[in-house]
Write a structure and sequence with these properties.
Blueprint: H1 2-16, E1 23-28, E2 35-44, E3 47-55, E4 66-67, E5 77-78, E6 83-90, E7 95-102, E8 107-115, E9 121-127, E10 134-141
Antiparallel strand pairs: 1-2, 1-10, 2-3, 3-6, 4-5, 6-7, 7-8, 8-9, 9-10
């Protein structure tokens, strides 16, 4: 009976805990339709940060490319290893308040993200002024 109660209480905790974006994500290019990179998202004291850990070769794109259009300290850094997602935090309904960097253009965008119910997809919305003026990209969980 005790084992059953422990199992039941553990299951309740597991279902009550929201899924988080921590982990490794496969980025599918919204224009190319192919896997472009792997990004690892980590929680650092409630703030989520994402770094490119692998760039996949694509026609016309060298996987060892540097970000010559990136702003600030990220300029001329290798894209592989580059932090592209910063400042994201849970606001009660989604992850928001951060920025995402497009290493192809060097542009920084405000960002929000939502996990699919099964936790296997992450929908990121990058925008300039308001979410209405942006685009959504879907990343797929690797682990």
């Amino acid at each position: 009976m005790l084992k059953f109660l422990l199992l039941l209480s553990w299951a309740g905790i597991a279902f009550a805990s929201p899924q988080t974006p921590d982990g490794l994500w496969r980025v599918i290019g919204d224009k190319s339709g192919v896997a472009e990179a792997l990004v690892r998202i980590d929680n650092r004291d409630g703030i989520y940060v994402g770094k490119i850990v692998k760039v996949f070769p694509r026609p016309g794109i060298d996987p060892s490319v540097i970000c010559d259009r990136c702003p600030g300290t990220r300029r001329n850094q290798p894209v592989e290893g580059l932090t592209i997602l910063t400042g994201m935090h849970w606001n009660g309904k989604e992850y928001a308040g951060g920025e995402i960097l497009d290493p192809d253009s060097g542009e920084l965008y405000r960002c929000s993200m939502k996990l699919a119910e099964d936790g296997r997809k992450l929908h990121l919305r990058g925008y300039l002024l308001a979410p209405l003026f942006g685009r959504t990209e879907t990343w797929f969980r690797e682990n």
